[in-house]
Design a protein that fits this description.
Length: about 270
C-alpha cells in the first residue's frame, strides 16, 4: 500500500504539490477563530495571543512575567485620547473596511526602496487581529490569516466595539496591556482623567511600547507626541472650518430635499469624534 502511494506521488508530482498546498490552506483556515470573533460583540476577550507569546518568551529566558490589564468602557475614555490614538495609528479608521490601501501602497514602495520592513501599513483592525489571535511574526501565512480575521472583525463588530477592544488589549509596555493599565502605570490615574498631552504620549509609543515609555522625555516620544498633537489640531481646525461653511450656506443647500427612498449611512463610531 505504501509503495503504491509513493509510486503515485512520483508519477503525479504536480498534483501532489497541489494537494499538499490545499491541505495546508484548509488546516490554516480551520485555525481561524470564526465563532469567537462573533462572540466579541458582547464578550470581552481575556488572554490574547500576544499575551501568551510574551509569557512564552519570558519563560524561555527564565524571567518572571506578569500581565496587568484593566478593562475600561470606551465611553469613559476622553474623546481627545481616542482621537490621539486614531490620528497616530489609523487616520481613516471610520471610513475604511479594514484596510487602508493608500498606506499599504506607501509601505510597499518604502520597504522596497529601503530593502527592509521600514514602514508598516496596518490599520487598527489589522493590529487587533494580530494581537488577539496571531503573533508578531511577519511571515506570509500569518499575514494572510490576519487579512481574513480583519475582514471578519469588520463584518461582525461595530467600529466603536473594535476601537474599545483595541484600546483595552494592545501592549503598552512589559506586561502592560490596555489603556487603563497603561494610564495607571505611567501617570498614576485612570484613563478617564488623561489630558490631551498624556493621551498623545500614549499614542506616540504604540508602534514600539517595549522600547519607549510614554512618560519619558526621549527624543522619540517628544517628536511623535508633537506630531500627534499637530494632527489633532489640524483636524479640529478643518472640522471648525467645515462647520462654519455649512452654517453660512442656505438651508436648502445644506439639507437638500431627498426622495423617500434615500437613507443616511450613519457609522456607529461617529460619536467618538473622528
Amino acid at each position: 500500500m505504501i509503495q503504491r502511494v509513493f509510486a503515485w506521488i512520483r508519477a503525479h508530482k504536480v498534483k501532489t504539490l497541489l494537494l499538499l498546498l490545499l491541505t495546508y490552506i484548509l488546516v490554516e483556515l480551520a485555525t481561524i477563530p470564526w465563532i469567537s470573533i462573533g462572540a466579541l460583540r458582547t464578550a470581552n476577550p481575556t488572554e490574547t495571543a500576544l499575551m501568551r507569546q510574551r509569557k512564552a518568551e519570558a519563560a524561555d529566558e527564565a524571567k518572571p512575567y506578569r500581565v496587568t490589564q484593566r478593562w475600561i468602557p470606551l465611553k469613559r475614555i476622553p474623546p481627545h485620547v481616542v482621537q490621539a490614538v486614531i490620528v497616530a495609528e489609523d487616520g481613516t479608521f471610520y471610513s475604511h473596511g479594514g484596510f487602508d490601501w493608500y498606506e499599504v501602497q506607501e509601505s510597499i514602495e518604502k520597504n522596497i526602496k529601503q530593502r527592509r520592513a521600514a514602514r508598516g501599513g496596518s490599520t487598527i483592525t489589522q493590529q487587533l487581529a494580530k494581537n488577539l489571535y496571531l503573533s508578531t511574526s511577519k511571515d506570509p501565512v500569518r499575514k494572510a490569516k490576519e487579512a481574513v480575521i480583519t475582514l471578519l472583525l469588520e463584518g461582525s463588530l461595530s467600529k466603536s466595539r473594535i476601537l474599545e477592544i483595541y484600546l483595552n488589549c494592545i501592549e503598552w509596555g512589559r506586561g502592560i496591556f490596555g489603556i487603563e493599565a497603561a494610564s495607571l502605570a505611567y501617570f498614576g490615574k485612570s484613563a478617564s482623567a488623561l489630558t490631551p498631552e498624556e493621551g498623545a504620549r500614549l499614542a506616540a509609543v504604540i508602534p514600539s511600547p517595549l522600547r519607549h515609555r510614554p512618560d519619558a522625555d526621549s527624543r522619540y516620544v517628544l517628536r511623535r507626541k508633537q506630531i500627534v498633537l499637530n494632527r489633532m489640531a489640524a483636524r479640529y481646525a478643518a472640522s471648525q472650518s467645515q462647520t462654519e461653511e455649512m452654517s453660512s450656506r442656505p438651508t436648502e443647500e445644506v439639507f437638500p430635499d431627498t426622495d423617500a427612498t434615500d437613507s443616511l449611512d450613519i457609522d456607529e463610531g461617529d460619536d467618538n469624534g473622528l
